[in-house]
Amino acid sequence: MKVRENGGMTVSTAVPFKVADLSLAESGRHQIRLAEHEMPHGMAAFGSVRVTQMVTGYSKRALLTEQFLGFEPLDLPERSYETLAMWLTLPAPGGSEEERFKFAMGLHAVEHALSTALPVLVGCDPGDTGSTWTMGHHSCGLPMVILFDEAPGGVGICESGFRRLPAWLDLALRVVEGCPCEEGCPACLLTPRCESRNAALDKRQGIATLKSLQLSRSAAGYNPRR
Ligand SMILES: [Zn+2]
Ligand SMILES: [Zn+2]
Predict the structure, then answer these.
(1) How far is the CA of 102 from the centre of ligand 2 (A)?
(2) Does residue 226 lie in a domain region?
(3) From the CA of 191, how far away is ligand 2's center (Å)?
(4) Which segments of the chain have a pLDDT < 50?
(5) Which domain holds residue 158?
(6) Do 107 and 59 meet the contact criterion of CB atoms below 8 Å apart?
(7) So what's the pLDDT on residue 224?
């Protein structure tokens, strides 16, 4: 959303709904489905979740230059609902703090790549799904990428992606690896729906993480339909 102020000199860009929390729904404990095999470098799952979102504020930017002019906090109520989600869980990375930060930026890139590929794979609108990532989800302490149906209750978009996960991973990798840009561009990784305005994204690390997920999937003979 863009709002002109001061005779068109500044533009306020609202921060999109921020995922404040995402946890397994009460009913989800009976519904959770895992990929048939846990993969050496990741595990895929699908089930009901409770998403809690809130708008925390908006940033002001110059209309022409997009120069950052300040952040205005907002005190708005949370929005909480149950929906259907697909999530990938990865092993915690070792190494130095710098290496873990690089892994985190790659995980963020994987979230964006899967979000970019899903509408192509299943024919939905990019706004039909939400997504988030974390280096330590409160349920297990492990890194996760989560995509969920925006519609309360869920409408089957992420389920469709989960059932076609090998094709989804392949397409996400092709979108990012096949793009000639160096660090990510609107055709592959950048999106106006990112909560952090596309900061902290590492295209090369994202490609490496997607490849490790692909390798583990083929090593395990992964097939969620079986
Ligand atoms: Zn690109
Ligand atoms: Zn993002």
Answers:
(1) 15
(2) no
(3) 7
(4) 1-17, 28-30, 36-37, 219-226
(5) 2-220
(6) no
(7) 46
